[in-house]
Amino acid sequence: MPAASAAGGGGIVASHSLIPEALHHAFATFGVLLSPDLPLTRRQQEMIATAVSAANRCVY
Question: What per-residue confidence (pLDDT) applies to 60?
Fold first, then answer.
């Protein structure tokens, strides 16, 4: 089993790759959410993402 799949992150992208249009929209959304035009700094965005991942007990 590849390391990414063992960690859980690889399966997400692999499942989306079955529907390429969905993968495109997922990454496009991510790009918009990290836009430098938003009021949060990149540091603040990363802090929020880390706190949410910890609260959700994500391993990746």
Answer: 65
| Closest to 59 (Cα-Cα) out of 17, 15, 5, 14 | 5
Neighbours of 23 (CB within 10 A): 15
Three-state DSSP class for residue 27: helix
For the cut 90, the answer to whether the pLDDT of residue 15 exceeds it is no
Give the structural domain span for 49.
3-55
How many structural domains comprise the chain?
A: 1
| pTM (two decimals) | 0.50
Say whether pLDDT at 51 is over 80: yes
39 within a domain of the structure (yes/no): yes
Residues 6+ apart with CB under 8 A from 4: 10
